[in-house]
């Protein structure tokens, strides 16, 4: 892992980092698409990032969000941390309402089926996610008692 990526992982638990992250997310989404997933607003890093496109639970419109992910076999694991805010991110409600989604990893797009994980599986995947982004632990503490949702995204055959 590069020194830069290590630095980002250490800074990720800071409140100011999360505040900036929320502000730059729309720009990050555009930059991801333009660069084929090679660049983000925070520069070229080694953090595993994807774009997820869900169907809006109320609007029915396509909604795209950049997310960090972990791998569990061929599945992608994504965390609804919402940077530690008290409310769940909208994309998690979208996946609960409509589990079919699309992900873009670098320049590859594929269909996935989302499943909200709970219990022992959630505990295991939480540890997997923390290895990718240790800042999730700080976000969980700041989430005002909300259990952060974790989803398993299984690629469609």
UniProtKB/TrEMBL annotation:
It catalyses: oxidized coenzyme F420-(gamma-L-Glu)(n) + a quinol + H(+) = reduced coenzyme F420-(gamma-L-Glu)(n) + a quinone. GO terms for cellular component: plasma membrane. Pfam families: F420H2_quin_red. This is Deazaflavin-dependent oxidoreductase (Nitroreductase family). One of its GO terms (molecular function) is coenzyme F420 binding. Belongs to the F420H(2)-dependent quinone reductase family. It comes from the Bacteria. InterPro entries: F420H2_quin_Rdtase, Split_barrel_FMN-bd.
